[in-house]
Design a protein that fits this description.
The chain is an alpha+beta fold. It contains 25 helices and 29 strands. It is globular. The structure holds zinc ion (ZN).
Length: 858
């Protein structure tokens, strides 16, 4: 038997839950009556509990007097064992438990969050975050996703407060100065989806979507920032009812912005919780990227109400399906809402992030077996979300969108109110598609990595080969080639061939190591991965690449151009393409107007900036100016009438890059003027430009500017403004200022939901990295104690920026001597990415500085 799973001779059916939180003493008392089914005679019941004191346990059934149980708590296993003097006979029993606990400050379980009102007074609210295994910190329960039960919750709160839970309030009364709120029964669901929020909070007027009232909740004074979230909330709810062909399964839907929140959002049934930046926004003052994020997160969580909440994975190994699917649906919904946002093109950036990690030897398969539930914590990563969603998109395009949708409908109907596995979705899709799905998908889901598709022309034959892509060479077995080389995938490809001025598209399922296809006479060019949905990289023989580049930008779609640059950059980092060739290639994209193409170009410039010696940086900066300036000159600093959101965002991105990594003095001077003007009158200002100005002024700023930005951070009017100024505090250069920022990451001035991300930025900053690394080493215990687990994990990603051989050695030494475990393969992946940067530095620095040196004089 699996030691991590609860015994199954007693099954919960219904929880009658009563909780009384005290926001002044940060404590709560609770009671529950759990209706259970006893399946075989027993004297023992085992369930989960952690950091709870269980005061009393009794059990009763029809015709039997109540039995008192002895209580044993095991904090290591997070379990509670109840033993009764008489055997419980099979049948239905009622288990009564009385318990108490604390409202912790760890952003998990039942926890406290605080905020200041406009007069500066601090207020506390209580909220929950239970996924993956923290419901047990709020009430004793069978805390595994397939112990689904009905929850009937009563909250006893201060009469001046408000509370929200998964379902609508059924009754409200006052008793002994307390407000007693009784919520309706939920449908059968998993413990990790239960939620309560208690405090002084206010809601918007409900919007009706069919028969579902939809509201946004926030702390007082922020309702004006709820409109945009409500709009995408209503749209996506309608969209999913349509797509799934099933009505929303709950009785109401509340979206709640919580001031302290560890992740982005959480799909509690009917009571979705968010960090404020992911829900509240002033649409007029936000950048395109900020709005896109909110739209995406809201749609993502709504998608979960069916996929995740109505049908739930049986165990944590199935988490990927939950998250990959919600990520995929988020794209679909936002794309339907705002087609002009080109959401699937922008998704290229997310896919690229997954390709980066999945190109490491330390990657992992999307799905792997999970025994200890805490292993699930490390699954919330780019492979689960972004690779998973990419593979689903590839499958959807291969099977056809309607077939795919019908398969999803079949799956949801077959497993509603229950649990399912990856294989169950493949069965449904296969049934509708009338073809075996696992053969196609297993290589992508259960095995690590992805293929590199190489294309060359041999006379009139196109030779297409696949082999696994990795950045660093594999460890070779003395007896033969590296095993990974032999790994093969079934690769759905769309190949566009142009000959004699005409184009044709061929759809192939590549399954062999090598495939040959005949090209027509007067062959001109070939594009593999047309439309860009494939999760693989393409490497063209030099002649073929040159013919494609000649089609840039007009004859290739933005996602195709993005993939071309992204794959070329990956090939460069992997040592398959000379750095000089890549730098030449970047010149061909000077006129490109796609923000995603520029995102990858700018990211590669940052990478190069991090590996160069300080004396060489001015040359790289001149090179960056050469690449970026022409387009910015063309776009100008102010939007033209009728210009779309994507171009506006691009302008902001280019400006920021030119003023920071391009170190352009003119841009910096102009930014200072404009920033001053914007303080006087923000209305005339394009919101996409303002964050760039803040970043530029921080980059070139000193103490006075730092103090100004610190104040702006503390008095910000919107979550986005707060975030911009907060992040800018990591972008200054003088070490004494960065030292102040670091100090605030552990002194309580910066929320623990944000502090790890600030440290991460400083580790990635060439000006702050040495300082930040020293600080992390000196304050590791404090950070480990203060930060939420996922925050600490994300912070450590910053070590990728410590790209010198000396720092790399020190990083290894630190993590080894401390025996740091970030869960799963997370730390190995960071260390391999760091090693990759250091290796690249050794191999490419000379050619790089030689190349960019020419730009200094020009
Ligand atoms: Zn999710």
């Amino acid at each position: 038997m699996d030691v991590y799973r609860l015994p199954r001779h007693v099954i919960p059916v219904r929880y009658g839950l009563r909780l009384e939180p005290d926001l002044k003493t940060f404590a709560f008392i609770g009671g529950e009556t759990v209706t259970v089914t006893v399946l075989e005679p027993t004297t023992e019941i085992v369930l989960n509990a952690a950091e709870l004191e269980i005061i009393e346990a009794t059990i009763e059934n029809e015709g039997n007097a109540s039995l008192r149980g002895t209580i044993e708590l095991d904090e290591t296993m997070e379990r509670c064992r109840l033993t009764f003097s008489d055997k419980l006979r099979p049948g239905t029993w009622r288990l009564n438990l009385a318990f108490k606990g604390t409202l912790n400050d760890k952003l998990r379980g039942f926890y406290r969050s605080s905020y200041k009102d406009q007069a500066g007074a601090t207020h506390v609210l209580a909220a929950t975050q239970f996924e993956a295994t923290d419901a047990r910190r709020a009430f004793p329960c069978w805390d595994e996703p397939d112990f689904k039960a009905v929850f009937s919750t009563t909250l006893v709160i201060d009469s001046s407060l408000t509370a929200v839970s998964n379902t609508a309030v059924q009754s409200e009364r006052l008793e002994g100065g307390k407000k007693i709120l009784r919520f309706g029964d939920t449908f059968r669901m998993s413990t990790y989806l239960v939620a309560f929020v208690v405090g002084t909070i206010e809601a918007t007027e409900p919007v009706s979507v069919g028969r579902t009232p939809l509201r946004v909740w926030c702390v007082p004074g922020k309702r004006r920032l709820a409109k945009f979230g409500l709009e995408i909330g209503a749209f996506s709810l309608r969209f999913f009812e349509d797509y799934y062909g099933l009505p929303y399964p709950g009785d109401k839907l509340d979206l709640l912005a919580i001031p302290d929140f560890a992740s982005g959002a959480m799909e509690n049934l009917g009571a979705i919780t968010f960090r404020e930046t992911a829900l509240l926004v002033d649409e007029q003052a936000a950048t395109h990227a900020e709005l896109e994020r909110i739209a995406g997160v809201v749609a993502h969580e709504n998608a979960h109400m069916w996929f995740g909440d109505l049908v739930t994975m049986s165990w944590w190994n199935g988490l990927w399906l939950n998250e990959a699917f919600a990520t995929f649906m988020e794209m679909l919904a936002v794309d339907a809402w705002k087609p002009e946002w080109q959401r699937w093109t922008t998704f290229g950036v997310s896919r690229a992030a997954a390709l980066s990690v999945d190109g490491l030897h330390s990657t992992r398969p999307i799905e792997f077996s999970v025994t200890a539930p805490r292993e699930a914590d490390a699954m919330f990563d780019v492979l689960t979300y972004e690779k998973g969603a990419s593979v689903l998109r590839m499958l959807e395009q291969y099977l056809g969108p309607e077939v795919f949708r019908d398969g999803v409908r079949d799956y949801l109907r077959a497993h509603a109110y229950g649990n399912a596995n990856t294989g169950d979705l493949w069965v449904s899709l296969g049934r509708v598609a009338k073809q075996p799905v696992p053969e196609l998908t297993d290589g992508w889901i259960f095995r690590p990595g992805y293929p590199l598709i190489s294309v060359s022309l041999d006379g009139s034959v196109l030779v297409i080969k696949q082999q696994r892509f990795t950045y660093l060479p594999g460890s070779t077995d003395a007896k033969g080639p590296p095993k990974e080389v032999n790994q093969r995938w079934q690769v759905p490809t769309q190949i566009k061939i142009t000959a004699n001025g005409k184009t044709e598209t061929r759809r192939l399922l590549l399954s062999e190591e090598e495939t040959q296809i005949q090209v027509p006479k007067e062959f001109e060019s070939v594009l593999v991965n047309e439309d860009g949905h494939g999760f693989y990289r393409v490497r063209y023989a030099p002649g073929l690449l040159e013919r494609l580049v000649q089609l840039v930008p007009d004859s290739l779609a933005p996602i195709e151009r993005f993939n071309l640059v992204n794959d070329a950059w990956a090939a460069t980092v992997a040592g398959l393409m000379p750095i000089t060739e890549y730098l030449d290639l970047t010149a061909r994209f000077r006129a490109d107007r796609d923000k995603n193409v520029w995102a990858i170009l700018i990211e590669s410039f940052h990478f190069l900036h991090r590996i160069l010696a300080p004396a060489e940086r001015p040359a790289l900066e001149a090179f960056v100016r050469d690449r970026i300036s022409p387009l910015l000159t063309e776009l100008g600093w102010t939007p033209k009438p009728g210009e779309n959101d994507l171009i506006r965002q691009l302008r902001g991105d280019l400006l920021r890059a030119l003023g920071t990594i391009g170190n352009d003095r003119n841009v910096q001077a102009r930014a200072a003027e404009l920033y001053l003007a914007s303080r006087k009158d923000q209305t005339t200002f394009d919101p996409n430009v303002l964050p760039a100005l803040i970043a530029i002024l921080a980059h070139s700023g000193h103490a006075a500017r730092y103090n100004e930005f610190w104040e702006r951070f503390r008095s910000a009017a919107t979550p986005q403004e707060e975030r911009r100024y907060l992040y800018s505090l990591a972008a200054f250069q003088p070490v004494e200022l960065l030292q102040q920022t670091l100090a605030h990451t552990i002194d309580g001035e910066i929320r623990t939901q944000d502090a790890p991300f600030i440290v991460r930025l400083l580790l990635m900053s060439i000006y702050g990295r040495v300082l930040a690394w020293k600080f992390v080493k000196a304050n590791w215990e404090t950070m480990d104690r203060l930060y939420p687990k996922n925050g600490l994990r994300r912070m450590c990603e910053g070590v990728i920026g410590l790209a010198t051989p000396e720092l790399e050695r020190d990083v290894h030494e630190f993590f080894t001597s401390r025996k740091v475990d970030l869960g799963g393969k997370t730390l190995d992946q960071y260390l391999e990415q760091l090693h990759l940067a250091v290796t690249f530095r050794e191999h490419a620095s000379a050619a790089l500085s030689n190349y960019v040196g020419k730009f200094l004089t020009s």
